[in-house]
Amino acid sequence: MEQLDCCAAPKAEAARVPCPGCGANGKPVGEETVQGLLIPEALAALGVQGRSFCRTASCPVLYFAADGSVAHKAQARVRVGMKETEGPRPLCYCFGHTYEDVAAEVAGGGACSIPTLITAEVRAGRCACERMNPAGNCCLGEVNRAVKEARVAVGLPLDGPSPRAPVVPDERRP
């Protein structure tokens, strides 16, 4: 499978450091991400070295730095979907898809077109994940997790066709 640029892992990723808010290991993020997503006051207060993103849903810390400084979820310019409990919860920041969009598609037929739509947009060079996604990377991993969670929520297997999915005839048969 072809690797999409915004989905590629950074070549030299810094060591993961525990979040001062919850103790979970953070994910290193780049300058472009924090500059685009934090309000100016929070950006000025956040240390420059070793910036990381905390993905723990219940933790109020969004970004933290090696010097112990933090920026909280409330200091972001956007809602951070994986840290929200009420909808709409952003999932794809470049193209406007939400967790609720995924759940509605799955509930309506078992399948979900959103990962395919995002992949097509990424291939066309229309994503800005590093600037728009608080995690600083491509959302497809999180989108695919959301699809699996939505399938489980409606009693479908994690992968495979839905019993409600339309059957496409094989035109090669006689």
Automatic annotation (TrEMBL):
<dbReference type="InterPro" id="IPR041854">
    <property type="entry name" value="BFD-like_2Fe2S-bd_dom_sf"/>
</dbReference>
<dbReference type="InterPro" id="IPR040890">
    <property type="entry name" value="Znf_CopZ"/>
</dbReference>
<protein>
    <submittedName>
        <fullName>Copper chaperone Copz family protein</fullName>
    </submittedName>
</protein>
<feature type="domain" description="CopZ zinc binding">
    <location>
        <begin position="18"/>
        <end position="75"/>
    </location>
</feature>
<dbReference type="Pfam" id="PF18423">
    <property type="entry name" value="zf_CopZ"/>
</dbReference>
